[in-house]
Amino acid sequence: MSMTISDEKMILEKAHNLLAAAGVKSFPLRMKPIIAYLQTGNELQVVKYTTMAKLMNVPVETIGFKVGSDEAALVYTGPDKPTTIYYKDVWIPKVRIRWNLGHEVAHFCCGHHLIEYRVKCSGLEMSKATAAHIEAEANTFSRAMHAPLELVLLFMGYYKIYDRLGVFAILRGIFQMSVPASYYYANRIFNRPVRGLFDIEHLRQYLDFYHDFTATFNRAAFAAVQRRYEPEYDMFEKHLNRRVLPDYRLPYQESISAIVGRVLPRSDDNAGLA
Ligand SMILES: [Zn+2]
Questions:
Q1: What is the pLDDT of residue 3?
Q2: Are 187 and 244 in contact, with CB atoms under 8 Å apart?
């Protein structure tokens, strides 16, 4: 039940276009500019649970029940009404708020609310397979927003990291993604090929960030970041009750070197992308 490479590539492309349009150039991701961009066309409304509770004069605890989700939901009730994301903004870690928002924005950008609406109007129920596919797409999109694949590969090349644990540390330490999101993303990178998914041109808008980050954290400094985050990987895996051994696949090393070589030619002056 995994996406085809071309489906996945399309999702990454969409996520990249959104980041480019919203002017996102650095990480950790901030959802504010993205939401501001999506709200300018009046395409989308974004409402906090606390705002809704105030408006309705009810306790915040009841909002999850009203919108049909504990933490966040995308609500669409027809073509003439605004599409709204409701999200829980209290009693929940910031990284989780960011992920939830990213996930609902992903549903919106992929048009999942329209699919859901059509199914509902036809009086049918969405199949489990379609629902799972939609969730996989939203998670892939949200991941790509939080940490664009090309940029993750570039950091892997710079820090010479070719295993799941190290990538997990990159996602936690540089992109400040949550433990579960980092875990699944790191595993995605090693479970199936990523060749054919990335577009080096996408790196253009993130190069300043990349250079600033690597200027602050050289390889030795990043080793400390790695040591700090890697234990979380094992803890999460134990919690999932499964064990996947770290993978050191050579082809990754090669394709990453190729990326680094093209993006940062010998002199490190990024002539290739400047
Ligand atoms: Zn969802």
A1: 85
A2: yes
Domains of the chain by residue range: 5-141, 147-263
Residue 107 alpha carbon to ligand 1 centre in Å: 7
167 CA distance to ligand 1 centroid (A)?
25
Arithmetic mean of pLDDT, 23-35? 97
The CA 185 to ligand 1 mean position distance, Å, reads: 16
5-141: CATH topology is Arc Repressor Mutant, subunit A (1.10.10)
* Chain CA centroid to CA 182, Å: 9
Q: Which two tokens stand for residue 236?
A: 């999460």
- Torsion sign (Cα): 159, 161, 165, 170: positive
Question: Does residue 223 carry a pLDDT above 90?
Answer: yes
Residue-wise over 146-166: b if at least 16 C-beta within 10 A, else e? bbbbbbbbbbbbbbebbbbbb
Give the distance (Å) from ligand 1 centre to CA of residue 88: 14
Q: What is the mean pLDDT of residues 211-220?
A: 94
Report the separation in Å between the CA atom of 229 and the middle of ligand 1, taken as the mean of its atom positions. 27
